[in-house]
Amino acid sequence: MLYGDLGTGKTTFTKGFAELFEIKEKDIKSPTYTLIRRYGKKLLHADLYRLQELDEIVFNEIETFLEEGGTVVVEWPEVMEKNFNKPHIKVRIANKGKNLREFKITEHR
């Protein structure tokens, strides 16, 4: 789960993370308007910024993808936090100046 203000680099982080799955950086597009983008069976990238409340269809797709063994990156996960009870990692990104970011990474079980 990725947290941070607009422009802190959540999608940029996801592009770098996707390389672990041999997905090219240029292939990662922000799912701001589509909410979810799948990259085969390896990675699902969700952006919940536009949601005011949890969309059950989106939440079910995320849960199903995880159950099938995929990895999920969620930007703006606040709307789903209280309903998500699986182990996960939270990455908080803070803008500390031009091209400078601070990352806080915590594991949740």
Supply the key terms.
three-stranded mixed β-sheet; globular; alpha/beta; 109 residues; 2 helices; single chain
Fold blueprint:
Layout: E1 2-3, H1 10-18, E2 36-39, E3 43-47, H2 56-67, E4 71-75, E5 88-95, E6 101-108
Parallel strand pairs: 1-5, 3-4
Antiparallel strand pairs: 2-3, 5-6
What's the level 1 CATH class?
A: Alpha Beta
The chain-level mean pLDDT equals 94
Question: What is the total number of structural domains?
Answer: 1
Main β-sheet description: 3 strands, mixed
Task: List SSEs in N-to-C order.
Answer: EHEEHEEE
Oligomer status = single chain
The CATH H-level homologous superfamily: P-loop containing nucleotide triphosphate hydrolases
Rg estimate, integer Å: 13 Å
Sum up the overall morphology in one term. globular
Q: Record the strand order, biggest sheet.
A: 1-5-6
User: What CATH architecture would you give?
Assistant: 3-Layer(aba) Sandwich
Explain this structure.
This protein is of the alpha/beta class. It has two helices and six strands; from the N terminus they run E-H-E-E-H-E-E-E. The strands form two sheets. The protein has a three-stranded mixed beta sheet, with no helix packed on it. It has a three-stranded mixed beta sheet with strand order 2-3-4, with helices on both faces. The mean pLDDT is 94.
